[in-house]
Amino acid sequence: MYFITNREPKGSRNSKNLPAPYEFDLSLNSPSNSVYLCKVDKNKKTKKEKESKTAKGKSENFNYTCEELGSKAFMTGLRNAKAKQILLFIHGFSNLPETDIFPRAEGLQKLFDAKQKDLVEVVPLIWPCDNDFGIVKDYWDDQKSADLSAVSFARVLQKFMEWRDEQPEDDPCLKRINVLAHSMGNRVLRESLVKWDEYDLASGVPLLFRNTILMASDIVNETLEDGEKGRLISHASRNVSVYFASDDLALRSSKVSNLKNKVASRRLGHTGPEDMKKVLKNVHAIDCDNFNNAYDMPKGHSYFLEDNKGKPGKVFEHLFQTIKTGRVLVDDQEGRTHILE
Fold first, then answer.
1. Over the range 2-24, which residues count as b (16 or more CB within 10 Å of their CB) and which as e?
2. What CATH number is given to the structural domain containing 254?
3. In a domain, 216, yes or no
4. pTM to 2 decimals?
5. Which domain does 116 fall in, by range?
């Protein structure tokens, strides 16, 4: 599995000596100015792990083995991968790589492979979350980290555009790129596009993503409207799918945290867009209120993977069809809204 991160690794780095081992330093929660384009192998154990097992005579807890590739090797590797489409997965707040992000990305990959092998390659985008105790402290530390990560990930977008322009005219890269942003990962996506537009682009963002999926979004529900920061998400995407549920308890905690800091606005993942008439026509709103808590008890926040019986859930089935076809299925075509039953 390929991944992108701006979390600092352990040890010193030299970009001239790549590929090189990469190990997360979880004691460092500040976003790095550097971006690391890597690959992780769950089936490959390090020499240290093998020696530890021999010395103690029993298996140790498994650690993922990561390798930094560098931008060109990373992008060339993805181009040569069998999958026809790429799905960038941007995780939410208070998520750590080995315990949360890699397992969830693997779960997504298994669901896609079970539906259609070699359709989608899931690529996690990992930003620094805090592992302190206390949800309010974590929430505000992570919100700052999400904002500060934007410059780093904007650089990745620009690197991709430069790499794409270097490809031969008679052999362009034809893979389609999609984004799935969960919870506060929506803030990372939004701010990255803002910084990319501000620092690198002359006249707005290009149409880069085939489908952008905003899942349980922890950003204000007016953000996709004209004049708001999130408008660039619509500009950069062929389709934008907003999945929301009014009884998402994790977003209620988010709302309480924001109110304590005098930010009074409903979240996009609670209500969908505030006014569908004020967003572009490529934005679709999908109501998941009928089952989100049954899929993710008791929070009802991570409802986009399996259902309560371990089978592909209703949200996954819906977003799979969106990614496969490039079209968002909604009952109300004029209002661009849909209720998942």
1. bbbbbbbbeeebeeeebebebeb
2. 3.40.50
3. yes
4. 0.91
5. 72-339
